[in-house]
Write a structure and sequence with these properties.
Keywords: Coiled coil. The chain has 10 helices and 8 strands. By secondary structure, it is of the alpha+beta class.
């Protein structure tokens, strides 16, 4: 993309020498984008009637260029060429639509007659034929694959032509369309976007009846709906028919699929982060419980050691009392041996060192 750099004074001279609409054909920016640039750099814009007066050689007075305090007046503009024929200040969606419209091989025109119908179109027509044969809905279900089309019979040919072109355009863009028991879906980069085509209707009230009643009467206008929830979008027949909206429809489907894919990736990463946090929490809880178990064991051992020392102190006192009273009899000795054995049974230091280390690990 070739760029030109102008001083603020040169940009001012450009704006006052050529209408913004013509400048927009030279540079890859809309006239509205040029107006914003003039506002940013405090460059006055020719008033209404200026160019008309100039055309008929009437006296005109260019607006005065005020002082600009930033000290940096380098203004960069991109020349419009074959590689960038679109306004760079347009929205990304608008640029994509214009690029699609400029593709000479893209099937953007809905034909007047159905030729080489897509298999989904043929299956839908066959479904309608079978449906007419079996009007009893209890004997004929929706097992046969068919597009989600809800129109009066008179509008079915137009609906099929539109859907046939839409499917072929999606496939041209590397996407697809699938039909299952849940409906019709555009398949774009692994994302399913639900599609349905229906006929709009007007509510007509019956004022002659004693009790006011109303009914919905189809009006022949088609409505294409895509997506659901926050990504749902409708295109309706108005001054512009939905057949002429195909580039906008496909680009919007692609952008919605991109948003959905980004949302899924964000959700996937968030799920991984939550799983990591849960694993860390579980590990911390495991370590806490293990530490608490070791502490409980230590306190229990300390209590048992205190009990063992208490028993030994009591036995020693009993032994001294017996010696004072005349000596230790056989019966008293048996009791002393038994009591000291119980003290050893309580004493955690009597167990092997491996057992102690195992308890402390």
């Amino acid at each position: 993309m070739e760029k030109v750099t102008l001083t603020r004074k040169e940009f001012y001279n450009l704006v006052w020498s050529t209408p913004l609409s013509k400048l927009a054909k030279t540079y890859a920016i809309s006239d509205n984008g040029l107006r914003k640039m003039c506002k940013k750099y405090q460059v006055p814009i020719p008033p209404n009637g200026y160019w008309q007066k100039l055309k008929f050689n009437k006296p005109v007075m260019p607006g005065k260029l005020p002082a600009f305090g930033t000290g940096n007046d380098a203004i960069e503009l991109t020349l419009r060429g074959d590689e960038n024929p679109f306004n760079l200040d347009a929205s990304p969606e608008t640029i994509l639509v214009r690029k699609l419209k400029a593709d000479p091989d893209a099937p953007l025109i809905v034909p007047e007659t159905l030729a080489k119908a897509h298999p989904h179109i043929r299956e839908t027509k066959r479904y309608w034929v079978e449906q007419n044969k079996h009007s009893d809905r209890f004997r004929f279900g929706n097992a046969m694959p068919h597009l989600s089309i809800g129109t009066e019979k008179a509008n079915r040919p137009r609906a099929l032509l539109f859907f046939d072109t839409l499917i072929k355009l999606l496939e041209y863009r590397g996407h697809g369309v699938a039909i299952n028991e849940r409906g019709t879906f555009a398949l774009i980069d692994g994302v399913e976007i639900k599609l349905s085509l229906r006929e709009a209707s007007n509510r007509v009230y019956n004022t002659e009846s004693r009790w006011p009643t109303s009914e919905l009467i189809p009006n022949g206008k088609l409505i294409l709906k895509s997506g659901r929830y926050s990504f749902d979008k409708e295109w309706r027949d108005n001054k512009t028919k939905i057949e002429d909206m195909l580039p906008r429809i496909v680009v919007r489907l692609e952008l919605d699929a991109q948003k959905e894919a980004q949302w899924r990736e964000t959700a996937r990463i968030a799920a991984i982060e939550r799983e990591k946090e849960e694993q860390l929490r579980q590990e911390k809880e495991r370590l806490r419980k293990a530490e608490q178990a070791k502490l409980d064991t230590l306190l229990s051992q300390a209590d048992n050691f205190a009990k063992a020392e208490k028993i030994r102190a009591f036995v020693a006192a009993a032994e001294r009392t017996a010696m004072i009273k005349g000596g230790i009899s056989e019966e008293i000795q048996l009791w002393i041996d038994w009591a000291l054995a119980k003290a050893d049974w309580y004493d955690p230091t009597i167990v092997t060192s491996d057992s102690i280390l195992g308890d402390l690990d």
